């Protein structure tokens, strides 16, 4: 759930909106009434904890003036929001019979709620939130696990991949960015056995393993579909590559192997799939579930088990001049 657009006033009378959530982690805690014992203790404990990597925001239906007095009296270090009409209270569903249920929400830098606590007991709560925040930050600021796990595997099962899963891969690809939103990518998804066999005839011997794939996705486009910019920057290949990148990460998340290859007879495949002659058949992607390595050649078995090899970053990136 992403926090909706809103505009409220802080204890200082300043405007605070949904935009103030972006780019930082936010701990948003709803409390019933300023000055009551439980609310005071909770706000004081949130103020005492060292939240270096997040902003802490308390919210109630009290007036700005009441929140200002509450903050000054208890020397609070958190931001307090006044929501007299219950706009965010209703959005977060923290009202029962018109009364606020003590609740806390952990919000990420995009404004999405990543964890919630309802019917909060003050004892030990702030420490629990701190630990959850630390875990969330560690997760978000690490390499995306699906990018890290993705490999061009060749061991595939022949088990059919449901159409709805294949369609989800295409949807992920279709959300890629493109020059002027031209969306130059085109796909042909092949999962019918007889048609797959025809494409197998266009594969070289080294791609024998693709014959186990229950689905092949042909990716094609042409120059006219996208921006043609100075210095030979024909964006149709770049943008379609971005779409394929989305597809590969989505497949990994779903437990699928998606292996794009360049080894095939493009003229023959285009003829089989009725792809226009003036289109570039950029790649064929073999899609399936991870299978038995024993069906691979010795060379490919070694590749399947090998560690990923990447050049040092110093070889591929330069900072400034």
What does this structure look like?
34% of the residues lie in helices and 21% in strands. It is built from 11 helices and 15 strands. The chain has helices at residues 37-48, 64-74, 87-91, 125-140, 145-149, 163-174, 193-200, 235-253, 266-273, 298-305, 313-316; strands spanning 7-10, 15-17, 25-30, 54-60, 79-82, 95-96, 99-100, 103-107, 113-118, 186-190, 215-221, 228-229, 233-234, 257-261, 280-288. A 7-stranded mixed sheet has the order 2-1-5-4-3-8-9, with helices on one face. α6 packs across α8. The longest helix has 19 residues, at 235-253. The protein is elongated and about 80 Å long. Disulfide bonds join 179-227. This is Bacterioferritin comigratory protein/NADH dehydrogenase.
What are the defining features of this structure?
single chain; 321 residues; alpha+beta; Glutaredoxin; NADH Oxidase; 2 domains; 4-stranded antiparallel sheet; 11 helices; 21% strand
